[in-house]
């Protein structure tokens, strides 16, 4: 495929993926007033086991001052745990709580249920096969 065709494909694919992503983000447990950044922090903590607030700021590309209120909100909701470092008492290790793990699992389950139902009801068997085959190239795009 030449560059012009790739550009046209990208122009058609980008808004569809963005809209699908936004729709998936809206599917969340009721009564959970979390921002996208707070949800992202929970996922980072799940991936890294524990992090310092400064590390979270770097990973989220936000200022260290912005992380504090977000972490306080997550702690108020019992979604994270804060523990003093064993090597440096000035540092606080932040990790995902059991409630935070349950929350992420619930969000994923709700999204999977919605997407699975949508695929089953709207897509023909041939379209479902196309979606299955698209997973590998889409994964390559993410890793680029």
TrEMBL record:
Keywords: DNA-binding, Transcription, Transcription regulation
Pfam families: MarR
Keyword DNA-binding: yes
Domain HTH marR-type positions: 6-140
Listed name of the protein: MarR family transcriptional regulator
Regions that span the bilayer: none
Superkingdom: Bacteria
Coiled-coil region list: none
Database matches in SUPFAM superfamilies: Winged helix' DNA-binding domain
UniProt-recorded Gene Ontology molecular function terms: DNA binding; DNA-binding transcription factor activity
Record-linked InterPro entries: HTH-type_Bedaq_tolerance, HTH_MarR-typ, Tscrpt_reg_MarR-type_CS, WH-like_DNA-bd_sf, WH_DNA-bd_sf
């Amino acid at each position: 495929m030449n560059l012009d065709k790739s550009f046209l494909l990208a122009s058609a694919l980008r808004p569809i993926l963005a809209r699908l992503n936004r729709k998936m983000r809206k599917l969340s447990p009721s009564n959970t007033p979390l921002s996208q950044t707070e949800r992202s922090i929970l996922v980072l903590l799940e991936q890294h086991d524990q992090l310092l607030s400064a590390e979270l700021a770097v990973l989220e590309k936000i200022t260290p001052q912005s992380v504090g209120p977000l972490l306080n909100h997550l702690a108020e909701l019992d979604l994270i745990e804060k523990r003093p470092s064993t090597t440096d008492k000035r540092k606080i290790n932040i990790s995902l709580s059991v409630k935070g793990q349950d929350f992420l699992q619930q969000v994923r389950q709700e999204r999977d249920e919605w997407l699975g139902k949508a695929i089953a009801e709207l897509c023909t068997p041939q379209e479902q096969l196309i979606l299955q085959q698209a997973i590998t190239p889409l994964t390559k795009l993410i890793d680029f």
